[in-house]
Amino acid sequence: MSVLNNIILATLSILAITSCNLKPTETTTQEKEIIERSVDVEGNYVDTAYEKRAEGFDWVGISVQQLSDTVINIKVRSRADIKGPTCTLDAQASKTRTNVYRTMLEGKPVLLSFDDESVSIKSELVNDSTILNFYCSGGASLGGRYKKIKEDLDSTQVDRTSFIKNLKFNGISFSIRSKHDGDKEQLTITPTGLSIDNDIHSHDITGETVLDAQIGDMNKDGYPEVLVYTQSHGSGSYGSIIGYSVNKGKSLSQIYFPPTADNPKINKGYLGHDSFSLADGYLIQKFPVYQEGDTNANPTGKHRVIKYELTDGESTRVLVVSSVEEV
Fold first, then answer.
1. Does domain 161-326 have CATH number 3.40.50.720?
2. Tens of pLDDT along 246-265?
3. From which domain of life does this come (predicted)?
């Protein structure tokens, strides 16, 4: 028995020594968890033809603005000093994962993938790739890779249109356009399909930028409302809305949006940085809540979410606060 015990003890000692000398199994590259680093997506991006613009080459550029941690504003502009612009698009995109954003173009999902030096644009679904031709003329496409540059797009050549979007609803269309005119910024809203009055509605929005525009039937009368979302220049970036409601398919009436800063129900801790959207017939406004002592760049409160409904006022339709929530 003692001999057997000695053999067992010797075997265990060998195993112990061997196990101590073994190195942990190294994880293969494929097995390692890859933690992607977020890049700064803001800035200007250009196609390969941009470097040859002095030779008369047509080119396309993209300007990206970070609206929040998860939303960016996209402006596609092209050369317009020789002929009409080749590609034009204004849209917002939402973050889907690190450095990748999705926007919906005519109901089709399109992805923008960023790295330190470029952005690549493609349809999320292969069969939807033709949607990238919709916003360009002459058979051109938005798809492809665009190189990031450190300067602004060439101001002597680039299309001066600040914002452009076309919206449709039940046979009624709107062309929303904002353009630099000297020192002024002019917004025009052009309806088509109304039975009586299709006049152009113009607004001087100097000091503001159009971020987006949406269309929907807010009062469930079968006719659309169109809302244009603007943001003031400067650190505050205060949001506002210019909107119109269709009167039984005949004409337009302007919608009144009460200034947020003047509304005691919602203005506590408000310092701008709004975002707007339409959802289920309601206007949704969201902004960060600032606490006392917060800097403009670093609000520490929650986010306030306000839901508005469209009601008939004495002389015009009005957006009225329906609910307020802090998240």
1. no
2. 999 999 999 999 999 999 99
3. Bacteria
Report pLDDT for 190: 97
The identity of residue 12, as a single letter, is L
Res 221: pLDDT: 93
Percent of the chain surpassing pLDDT 90: 78
**Rounded distance, CA 265 to CA 272, Å?**
15
Q: What is the mean pLDDT of residues 52-76?
A: 93
Mean pLDDT over the full length of the chain: 89
As to burial, measured by CB atoms within 10 angstroms (0-12 exposed, 13-18 middle, 19+ buried), residue 242 is: buried
CA distances (Å), origin 15, targets 3, 22, 25: 19, 11, 17
Domain ranges for the chain: 43-149, 161-326
Tell me the average pLDDT across 35-48.
91
